[in-house]
Amino acid sequence: MTLGWSSRFDHVVALTDDRGMFEHADGLVPRRVHGYCVDDNARLLVVMSREPADAITERLSRTALTMCLSALSHDGRSRNRMDEHGTWTDRADTEDCWGRNLWALGVASEQHPDALVRAAAGAGFDLASRQRSRHPRAMAFAALGAAAVYRRDPSHDPARQLLSSYAAHFSSAGTAEWPWPEARLTYANAALAEATIVAGVALQRSDVLERGLGMLSWLLALETIDDHLSVTGTAGRGPLDHTPQFDQQPIEVAAMADACWTAASITGDRKWERGIALATGWFDGVNDTGAVMFDSNSGGGYDGLQRVGVNNNEGAESTLAFISTRQRAHQLAGVTA
Predict the structure, then answer these.
(1) Distance CA 145, CA 191 (A)
(2) Half-sphere exposure of 9 (CA within 13 A, CB side)
């Protein structure tokens, strides 16, 4: 089962109004009462930054960018949650929303086809990069944004300093038995490996680069059963936990596709292409239960792979994870999306 690539943003448009992309859906219908979050609108900006400019991608980009920028406080911390009426309901901090905001702003400043979007995103990155976080994933997402800025401008010292902070504090190798910097795998796991890889490249630290590649190789092997991905479930995974686990979240698969695409781009080693193929296959039903993980009519991604069936809600995170994974597959194949 395949989805026509021309209809890939239909459900994204349905979930988005003038303020941003709604976080949750009841089936196909946005749950407006749950409002919006920066986490998802940052993901939206990343996905849109990879696309050629047209009326739809331009509108979605500017909507996502506006939310990401308006979430920033004067000192660079980020809010995350906005209610359905457009009122922020939390305080700015440096948790995951801050890191994802930096990721999105960095990627947009490097890759977005619109020069005005690139400039505004770059200014937002400069503000938010003043901060640091104690949370590993927040710093990993921030490092991915910093690496994008550094690729655009190798003289950008704040980006380099942020990458140095990540490499110094969040990229340890673990043990021989469990070569991961945490006692348990939790969520968006491959993002930690990807951040370590890009930090190693930017800082010209071959030891950090090899550490990141080793982390990713180990994670991919651990989360592969026979011919399919079997990603870590919502309860997390430690050395004594076995597969398969449920619920499996699309964000895990998208993070794996991103990390493998980055590893393939940097090393030129075609072995990483398998990770992208496995990620794509997971959505197509090559997974632990054989369930297709997207709606071929709407273009939405289902919210989770369960032991029996799927979570049929098509929320923002899962929909963008599906699209992001498809983007990586198309980029790998040299196809212009």
Answers:
(1) 12
(2) 19
Model confidence over 259-317: pLDDT tens digits? 999 999 999 999 999 999 999 999 999 999 999 999 999 999 999 999 998 999 999 99
Amino acid at 249: Q
- Answer whether 208's CB lies under 8 Å from 200's CB: yes
- Give, for 332, the enclosing helix (H) or strand (E): helix 316-332
The C-alpha atoms of residue 210 and residue 12 are separated, in whole angstroms, by 37
Angle at 189 between CA 184 and CA 287, to 5 degrees: 100
Q: Which residue has the tokens 């398969």?
A: 244
pLDDT tens-place string over residues 19-34: 999 999 999 999 999 9
Which pTM value belongs to this model? 0.95
Where would I find the H helices in 170-272? 189-202, 206-222, 250-267
Cα 228–chain centre separation: 21
Q: Which two tokens stand for residue 239?
A: 């050395």
